[in-house]
Amino acid sequence: MMLPPYLYDIQREIEGYARGYGLDFYEQVFEILDYKTMNEVAAYGGFPTRYPHWRFGMEYEQLSKSYAYGLSKIYEMVINNDPCYAYLLEGNSLVDQKLVIAHVCAHNDFFKNNYYFSKTNRKMIDEMANHATRIRRHMERVGVDRVENFIDVCYSIDNLVDPMSMFIQREPMPKPRARDEEEERPRQFKLKAKSYMDKYINPPTVEEAGPKPDEEEKVEIRKFPVRPQRDVLKFLIDHAPLDPWQQDLLEIVREEAYYYAPQGMTKIMNEGWASYWHSKIMTQKALTDAEVIDYADHASGVLGGSRSLNPYKIGIELFRHIEERWNTGRFGKEWDECDDLAAKRNWDRKLGLGREKIFQVRSIYNDVMFIDEFFTEDFCREQLFYTFGWNERTERWEIQSRQYQQIKGQLLSMLTNGSNPHIEVEDANFENRGELLLRHRHEGVDLRVDWARDTLSNLYKVWRRPVNIATTLEEKSKILSFDGKAHQERAGTP
Amino acid sequence: MTQKIDQDHSRFRKIVRGKIKQNLRKYITQGELVGRQGKDKISVPLPQIEVPRFRYGQKNQGGVGQGPGNEGDPLSPGEEQPGQGPAGNQPGEHVLEVEVTFEELAEILGEELELPRIEPKGRKTLTTRKERFTSIRLTGPESLRHFKRTFKRALRRQIAMGVYNPDRPVIIPVREDKRYRSWKVEYLPETNAVIIYIMDVSGSMGDEQKEIVRIESFWIDTWLRSQYDGIESRYIIHDATAKEVDRDTFFRTRESGGTMISSAYKLCAKMIEEEYPASEWNIYPFHFSDGDNWSVDDTGLCIKLLREEILPASNIFCYGQVESPYGSGQFLKDLKDHFSEEEDTLVTSEIKGRDAIVDSIRTFLSKGR
């Protein structure tokens, strides 16, 4: 449903404030949805038109059940698209709608300006609809069940992508040598001859019978891929023996995975940025006196709550912290080397660079860099962070540490690669039998073995030859394999 | 309004129920919404399918939190989900607590088992008069005077007459101001229902068997209660003789000795005849036994009682046979021999263990009567 006139006016008003602060966003289209449609659209990952698949139904059930029992409510949804689509929940109070509109402006600004979104498709609404059409067409041709089963397979490996690859210009892969190149090879067995006599003096049969080509080929055997490839999906699309429709499905799944990847990489920043601005816009401009209480109530709901890590909270606090530091000049060599606590406490160089700095941060950082650079010891202590873990002896969850290094390490390891293990294609001709070998770069935590096996079974359906993954289990190098019939585990090389 | 998601949703439900795509069955995790009903905890299933991926093993990884407390302090319940980190950590292992009412529970049960709503048997003409105090009159006994309305009228009158003084707000109602509560008669269609639970408590029914009966009757109770306004439950236990007991005793008693099912059926028939005339009541006898009866003669008597007295009066008669190591299970076969498929007032079900309870409830209640 389109926005009613009074909300449209509010939208204009708030967009005006946002632009005034320097936010720069795509044109915005707001729509009001009832909670059912909201849950539906949310289940589809924000897009009203997705291809049919049961996992959206599962999402939907979860959302509507927890909405029905009052456990959660989706206030708003923003789609990274140009124009930017945003959905508001019907029946939100006016304060909530104002807040949400301000929030959306900031998300939109983030989508438009953050570097990690720069490669995403800005016509994704159309693209998703096209994907749906393509998949429906495949379903008509080869049957719903076959297509759905293959989507299940793709879905099982859709985390094997490399979000950073979008930003890296790698050298093109060496092409397999073409036939005509071969002919240009210097022919060492050639006897001297005039051109018109050549084919008699050096008859082609002699050349072929020569010992040379064999030897040469031995030298030519190279590993393929030449370098390990992290974008496993891409590798499979290019090299696995797939039917055209399967290839298409895999491409669709990959494309969507890459579309969503930046959102996973910038969750803290994105939510922090949006919360920072809605709070700024609301408290400084948009709120009327009568709305303050409602606003405070909502804000405490979003930012407060349980003590577990809240991306909204940590994000907004970090942005504020950065702004504060750059306003007062608490950075750089001088600040770092200052040992005088009293001087540090009252440090104020009156630089006023805070606003500029946070805009810069929103443009070029992602969560990992954001935490790595700005999660300082002071911030960690002020915000009372801790790590927790399971205590075997007391059988309960306990606060484990308040050590800065540990907390930061834990945070970073949670954020790196979206908590996905680092897996790459190492060899597509493993054992010289056309088997696929993946390698898991072990970083301290083992893979979940039963799932790894089942994922291998799924991979087998794509590669159609035995598939292997080299990993480390309980500090021993192992290779897990599946040959289409049985799973195997053997010692591997690190 | 139908939504596009409905198609995906029903496909998901079908996978969960095991109707399609058996290969995904093993990935179904039984997430749940947990609620409390009095002392009892009730959990509402929230199944999810987690497709396998290359993922880290859990190994109680822990996480980062924010708040006061010293190293070594325990976290309060509800915070201990390590999956709550940013950037989409492992989903689906949260236990959510919600309050669930019996109505909601019944609705969920109905939805899960695809139970039809019950059509009460044909006596829609039967109504009860019910008086409800919903209206206001100018006359009536003082005991029914509507205090607030009376004073409002008085205030209005005084303001209109210009005798009201805001500084000294004295309001004195006179006779014309007085308002009295009054009733309206409503005719409500009446649906009376009674559930008669009969359980075999002979020596061969062990604790496990009784537990199964208890769980099953709880759910049956919940469902039927959602379908009828006033519902009564009666409990009969029997070994060689039958007696009526209260709910508590019903589930706790353990007798030993022989089994004469006819004794219970006699009592049941008597109960129906004396207290629940079939023209006015929806009657639901449920009989749980391990299927061991004393003699063939007694079984014959049972069948006679069922055919002539109990079945004609009942909406549905359910016989649930709980598997026990001692019972022969003969009674179920006898029932099946004597009653053909067409006589669908009699429903039988074999309950092999706890897992079979759901199917058994579905068998009993899916007739919609």
Characterise this structure.
The complex is a heterodimer of chains A (494) and B (369). In chain A, 53% of the residues lie in helices and 13% in strands. In chain A, the strands form three sheets. In chain A, strands 6-7-8-9-10 form a five-stranded mixed sheet, covered by helices on one side. Chain A has a three-stranded mixed sheet with strand order 1-3-2. Chain A is of the alpha+beta class and 494 residues long. The N and C termini of chain A lie far apart (58 Å). The relative contact order of chain A is 0.09. Among the domains of chain A are: 5-114 and 266-300, no CATH class; 304-416, no CATH class; 421-491, no CATH class. The radius of gyration of chain A is 29 Å and the shape is globular. Among the domains of chain B are: 127-187, no CATH class; 192-365, 3-Layer(aba) Sandwich (Rossmann fold), CATH 3.40.50.410. Chain B has helices at residues 5-17, 102-113, 147-161, 207-227, 247-252, 261-275, 296-313, 330-338, 357-365, and strands at 28-37, 40-49, 63-66, 96-97, 127-137, 180-189, 192-200, 230-238, 242-245, 281-289, 317-322, 346-351. Chain B is α/β, with parallel strands linked by helices and 369 residues long. In chain B, helix 8 (330-338) links the parallel strand 11 and strand 12 (346-351). Chain B starts with a helix and ends with a helix. A six-stranded mixed sheet of chain B has the order 9-8-7-10-11-12, with helices on both faces. A three-stranded mixed sheet of chain B has the order 2-1-4. A two-stranded antiparallel ribbon of chain B has the order 5-6. The model of chain B is unreliable at 35-39 and 78-99 (pLDDT under 50). At the A-B interface, helix 2, helix 3, helix 6, helix 15 and strand 4 of A face helix 1, strand 2 and strand 3 of B. Strand 4 of chain A pairs antiparallel with strand 3 (63-66) of chain B.
